[in-house]
Write a sequence for this structure.
């Protein structure tokens, strides 16, 4: 049986794996996505290696764009639902 509680047995918070489009993207993932998209655009769409060693090519840049788009969509829906 899987324990789906948000905490481990010792009380520490579990890392939440978040899928694209669920409107609950962690801020560090959003920062990563913004950085990747900006650097990829600055490179003119060429593959590039980030200072931390991560390799960014078209599939990685597209994933980052989807993360940003899903957040924009979720934010827009949340704002519309407040009205």
């Amino acid at each position: 049986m899987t324990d789906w509680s948000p905490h481990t047995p010792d009380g520490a918070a579990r890392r939440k794996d978040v899928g694209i489009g669920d409107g609950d993207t962690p801020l560090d993932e959003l920062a990563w996505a913004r950085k990747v998209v900006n650097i990829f655009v600055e490179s003119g769409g060429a593959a590039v290696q980030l200072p931390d060693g991560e390799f960014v090519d078209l599939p990685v840049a597209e994933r980052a764009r989807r993360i940003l788009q899903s957040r924009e969509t979720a934010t827009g829906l949340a704002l519309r639902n407040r009205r």
